[in-house]
Records
---
Amino acid sequence: MTINGDGLYLVAGLALLLGAVLPRLLRRYAVSAPIGFLGAGVLLGLAVDQSHLSPIVESSLTKHLAELTILVALMGVGLAIDRPIGWHRWKVTWRLLLVAMPACIAAVAGAGWLLGLAPATALLLGAVLAPTDPVLASDVQVQGPSTGADAEPEEDDEVRFALTSEAGLNDGLAFPFVYAAVFGATKGAVGGWALEWFAWDLIGRTVIGVLVGVGVGWLLGKMAFSAPSRTFRLAESREPVLALAMTLGVYGLAQVLHGYGFVAVFIAALTLRAAERHHDFHEELHGFIEQLEHILTWGILLLLGSAITAGLLRPLTFAGAALGVLLVLVLRPLTAWVSLAGTPMRRSERWVTAAFGIRGVGSVFYLAYAGADFRTDLPWLWATVGFTVVLSVVVHGVAATPLMRMLDVRRDRAA
């Protein structure tokens, strides 16, 4: 049986109801809501027209849906972080971004090359699987902004802060490596494009993204909290749509200026958060964005599960499965563990931070974005990335609750 267009409204309604109930239902068990939605999507795929469920066939829809989901999630995590940005305060973040992330990309690319992939394809796979996910990692991230007159910047939970701030930035910082893979596939020898890539795609576009984020975030922060006219003082009129307006506007401006929009959105959220840290309007902005993020996340997980039913994993080979397992269980934990040496983290905190490099919607977006230049390997790439995302969702979803509880108990004992 297949569901027609009108029946999809029923499916959408049931999916939203499931989304409201599932997190509460699974709260007592070592099973995260994303696992439930993936499973529901697999079942849903049995009842709908499977010819339209392939991310290869619907690459544009896949890209834009994943893109919007990431943007909303980046705004949410930026608003949730209490800690002011700084070199020392964000030491663990810089280690994860500047050491662990490039090392993990190189390790995946090297393993792929040893398993027979073309160099550009191997690099693309490493870059696509590089971002830790701000969408699916809510169980191991900071839960929201602390506001009020007595609120202090969050300092105690280094693990949640590290995973939240890393996910906020590395979704955008994976872009240069994706471009390097595309250039390798389309422009030939590295010597012909390496200097331009370094100066523009790695440095220039990142700087533009940061400047746009800081500039727009500062302007909107001034407007929302201290504009001379009450008409523009959105914090007083309680207009949470400001968060969505800023998300889309900042992203659009950064993209028009050829900067990295993902970086701009996260930086803008941090800048808005810093404009007036104690105002409870931040809670309303975060709550609004969080609800929208949940709806988009449910949708993309249902679609991913349905695509699996439709044959997404059929081209998966032993090499692809081995790379996924290697990344989730060995390469990410090992590179992140090494990168965090010398930080104030306890040994158990380092291991948990290193282990929870959740792969998800960011990988879906980047493969949909760059896949057109790798058509020969595209079915295999989608199968490998899909398998890795599912493996990550299951492994990390099962482990998140008990491990975070363990850290909380140890932290309380130490205190």
Note: The two ends are 58 Å apart (CA to CA).
---
Amino acid sequence: MAVNPPLVTLLGATGFVGSAVLRELARRPLRIRAVSRRPAPVPPDARAEIEVHTADLTAPGAVAEAVAGADVVIHTVLYSAGATTWRVEKGDTAAERVNVGLLRDLVETLRERRAAEGGTPVRVLWAGAASQAGPQDKEVLDGTETDRPRGEYDRQKLAAERLLLAADAEGVLRGAAIRLPTVFGYAPESTARDKGVVTLMTRRALAGEPITMWHDGTVRRDLLYIEDVARAFAAAVDHADALAGRRWLLGTGRGEPLGAVFTTIAALVAEHTGKSAVPVVSVPPPAHAEPGDFHSFAVDSSAFRTATGWRPQTPLDEALRRTVAFCAEGREESLL
């Protein structure tokens, strides 16, 4: 008798990270429920059986319906109110409802399911942020540091992570938090807009505008290409039990000076346009800048690599080249 493949429910399937995870998992013989506010595009080469489920997950009962029967839940939903994907004002209840409330709803749903049905706990993989640690005295984060978040977004993400790991300790679910560094870029098959700083500066350069920095360019960030993030979540699905109960950091292990990154972007854009490279200039930081904006860090992801066998595969220059090409060809304009 044939056995159904596992059902993976992907929350946030049209988001920047979620859409890339969907493309990666669609190559596998799985059942996938792609959950989002608007219909998720099904990859044309999908091997997986994909159910497109549209829902406002903040509505009563929506999370329970979305994860019904799931063996694995991947939670990539991110509150986004405008041009940036992560800044949140203190007291923003809409952001808290998404960033924390949806995880709380998921925990309560799975607690009720566990009490009613027993059986194997659902595996939950949740997308967090390396910035949850807050500014640290060291420049290489490895997951052993004490979290000291300064911004509201990071405080909300940390609150959600603690809910997840507490539920794992209680036996409600088997949960792992995967903290992401600065994720960026486009692949040829991308279907969701990148609102991060790397692609923002690519747009500026293509418009002939200077690339601006709030510092002297020596601030370093660990930049991880979106396709490598998707492969990491696929690896996490394969090793969900080994990862459960902990937070895990993703990154390349290198802190890239943003001034040099932006200069590379300017040069790549000049290749596409045939015009002179736009200047990269320092400007005064805006009032909403946070301490973390001026703090350099890289991420030591050796623990996750050892547990899963994952490695980032795309060199930075190649990832930047793909991103510039995608934007220069006008393909970004149709993305939401």
Note: The longest helix spans residues 93-117.
